[in-house]
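Hi R.,

As promised, here are both runs. First protein below:
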Amino acid sequence: MKRLQKCCCCASTRTGSLITASLGIILSIVTIITIWVADKHYVSYRTFIFAEDFDKKLSEMDLPRIFLTVNLCFTILICGLLIIAVLKRRSWLMLPWVVLGIVLAVGLLISVLHTSITYYLDGQQHALLATLILIGGLIYLCIYLYLWAVVFSQYLDIRDEEERGRYRKAPYKR
């Protein structure tokens, strides 16, 4: 993969990494608030592993909300580590975000495809919604992968800097 030199053609990968981490924290906090403020009847959790009545029991006990909240708290923690890593120039602190980012991208792709296919299979009344979810989800995935590539490029730059020494000049190209 070729390293990115700029984020959005105007900012450095360092600034882009800081913005990405900040966005991760903000979106996680907004999602936590939404999960707990939204009425239970408008939010549906399905496991597709257990029976439907078991899913209802889980939802009544708020286990899906608690599980999602814990996951989002870890996302906030890892984004905080990314901010510290970029500011202190420590590549090993960036590694959890890089790994989590690619795992979340795969999960996002699966989620978008599953949700849109489920709505397509429900019938014609949900075809427009399924198309919007598919197109919007894929656009969101592309933006997410671009921001992941920005952070990964910054990670590689910091890792290379640590390997050759901070104050040594870059080796000459032959």
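And here is the second one, sequence first, then its structure tokens:
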Amino acid sequence: MALGILEQVGLAATLIFALPVAVYGVQTILDGSTLFGAVAVLIAVLMVVLPRRLTSPDDVPAKAAETAVDAVVDTPDGSDGRDDR
């Protein structure tokens, strides 16, 4: 799944905040506090994964428009939309 430019920038911004939390979690695990470190690593993973999986209110109109276009426009399989005349 290819990411667009804005999605890549958003992922980079998320990683700026998630990576220090993950590093802190790993250091905490190595220092002996396994539970707290695992929770920190889990939070870092969720910071990256959840925005990709959840639908935000901004995504609803785009998904509705995509569904409407798919319902109206019927493209035959194997066709790329060009006329071969």
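A quick note on the second one: The two ends are 33 Å apart (CA to CA). Let me know what you think.

Best,
J.
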